[in-house]
Amino acid sequence: MGLDYEPNPFEVDHATLRARFLALQRLVHPDRWAAKSPVKGDIAARVSETVNTINSHLSNPVSRTLYILEQEGVTGDTESILDDPTIVMEVMEARESLEEAQTEEEVETIRLENKEKFDEAQRELSGLIASKAWNDAAAAATRLKYLQSIEHAARAWPERLFDH
Amino acid sequence: MFRSTIAKSVLNASPRAHTLASVRPALARGYHEKVISHYEKPRNVGSLPKNDADVGTGLVGAPACGDVMKLQIRVDEKGIISDVKFKTFGCGSAIASSSYMTERVMGLSLEDAEKIKNTEIAKELCLPPVKLHCSMLAEDAIRSAIRDYRTKRGKLSASDASKSGFIEVSQSAVTGETTATAHPPSA
């Protein structure tokens, strides 16, 4: 996408990303190529899909961090269990209060609180990535991911979030 | 105990098989009916008062998928799990694993409960390889609850050791191995 990896790959200029994404999609739009030949249309469809995937990975701070950590050779152990009671308790409490919430206002309050935590966690993560503290960044990314799951649950309310 | 639990959950699961069509499509497609049974009718959902001296709380999460699980046990004087509750926010397999675990540990001694392996849960619920971590989460949750209970008892009894006896629990900083030593009442 032509974005700078240095000095801090976490900081993405969203306007630039958006502009590059749209320009690329215009270039590889399948309709444009399908008119020339079906084969070219198929190739364009695949490229277009890839561009979509890259764009959504870069736009989201959690997947962006996972990508950066992967680039840096820090691969998260997918089997690992988190027993840091502070984070688990924080998430459990937020999810429970969402479950017990009766009104949209209550949900909105939880959401705003979570948004503040999320923004703060993002700033912290950005700092850790800038100073190349990869292990701490991985831990911060885990918390960010959990805070994001609270946001997803709040958005799904009053439906129960069915993650996967 | 084990056999009767299994028999019970199979009995619970089988009459539901023909109602699968009513289950949300995403679930019906990917999950085994035992998982769906526990997901739709989770056993022992809820909370126990975490400040009670005879309650141990286990709190664990799986960073890979963002699941969180709380498992609480109440332990009677004989060291038997007399009540158990769980709350899980996560996928169907994580909910089913913890639900199954609560049925499995009810009435067991702490020693027997901590011996339960995730492979047993995975086998019972027919979890596919990608969902094995859900059963590991349940195994970790019960161990964490037992650990919490023992730490609590240790602290409580240390202040009152002469009368009631206590269990000393220590964890090695190097190996992470937890050891528990029973100190029965002196007289």
UniProtKB/TrEMBL annotation, chain A:
Gene Ontology biological-process annotations: [2Fe-2S] cluster assembly; protein complex oligomerization
Entry's Gene Ontology molecular function annotations: ATPase activator activity; protein-folding chaperone binding
UniProt keyword list: Chaperone
Residues covered by the Co-chaperone HscB C-terminal oligomerisation domain: 84-154
Alphabetical list of Pfam families matching this protein: HSCB_C (PF07743)
GO CC term, one of those recorded: mitochondrion
InterPro entries in UniProt: HscB, HscB_C_sf, HscB_oligo_C, J_dom_sf
Cross-referenced PANTHER family: IRON-SULFUR CLUSTER CO-CHAPERONE PROTEIN HSCB
Family per record: Belongs to the HscB family.
Name recorded for this polypeptide: Co-chaperone HscB C-terminal oligomerisation domain-containing protein
From TrEMBL, chain B:
UniProt GO molecular function: 2 iron, 2 sulfur cluster binding; iron ion binding
InterPro entries in the record: ISCU, NIF_FeS_clus_asmbl_NifU_N
Leader peptide range in chain numbering: none
Major localization class: mitochondrion
Statement: the UniProt record of this protein carries the keyword Chloroplast: no
Gene Ontology annotations for the cellular component aspect, listed alphabetically: mitochondrial matrix
Origin superkingdom: Eukaryota
Keywords assigned: 2Fe-2S, Iron, Iron-sulfur, Metal-binding, Mitochondrion, Transit peptide
Annotated pathway: Cofactor biosynthesis; iron-sulfur cluster biosynthesis
One Gene Ontology biological process: iron-sulfur cluster assembly
Domain NIF system FeS cluster assembly NifU N-terminal span(s) in chain numbering: 31-154
Function, in words: Scaffold protein for the de novo synthesis of iron-sulfur (Fe-S) clusters within mitochondria, which is required for maturation of both mitochondrial and cytoplasmic [2Fe-2S] and [4Fe-4S] proteins.
Family of this protein: Belongs to the NifU family.
Official protein name in the record: Iron-sulfur cluster assembly protein
Origin species: Steccherinum ochraceum
Source species taxonomy: Eukaryota, Fungi, Dikarya, Basidiomycota, Agaricomycotina
Annotated gene: ISU1
